[in-house]
Amino acid sequence: MQFSMPALRRLIAIVALGCLALSATAAEPAPAPTADNIRKAVEAWTNGRYKAESVNNTPIKGLYEVRIFNDLFYVDEAARHIMVEGEMIDMQSSRNITRDRLDEILAIDFSSLPLDLALKQVVGKGSRRIALFEDPNCGYCRKLRADLARLDDVTIYTFVYPILAQDSETKARKAWCASDRVKAWTDMMMTGAVPKNDGKCDTPIARIRELGADLGITATPTIFFASGRRLQGYAPPDAFGKLLADNSSVIKR
Fold first, then answer.
1. Which of the chain's termini has less CB crowding within 10 Å, N or C?
2. Distance of CA 197 to the CA centre of its chain
3. Which of 122, 117, 186, 124 minimizes the C-alpha distance to 155?
4. Could you tell me which CATH number the domain at 110-246 has?
């Protein structure tokens, strides 16, 4: 049975939280033992869902081309690392090495954030802190909100960051202009209910947009942990909980 590349990429996203495909190059057959090891490793990494149709040498020594359906991937001779759409992934641990490295590079000093511009919500003791950039039209932000509601010890600083749709700012302004901003924003993110007011009050949205641009935030949700580590996009509850636990202390710089 053949699978479309969109189906393959969905699987890779689930398995590794990231993907990588490079341009095809002329290739010659790889030595049989190496080719066999690489083929088995890649097929195991896809949980047996996909067949590695060929394994070939590339012009780069130690880097092998693997064909799956109508696309090419690149694997090292140790049959451990695969490159998918610009990102390097450890097939043994499913760790996205590229994304983890970017998280290190893009980390910030949490104490430098202008928290006075954010909506503050304390859940339980609130000893763990996160800063969250959200757009009211962000579907993954809504999923994250539902997950955050189940936590028992976190302070959430929400930066209203309307960048996704034409009516994002209208919705954001109405939440900010509500009598209870935190409740209005949380309810809107959880249920989609937009507050019923004209949205004509002073808001920090312009300043938050400038902050987001300075921090290079181009998508929502974007989360910063107390350690300064950045998380771009949605992470499932177990993964997010581990990140929160591991990054709740400020890293001394």
1. N
2. 33
3. 122
4. 3.40.30.10
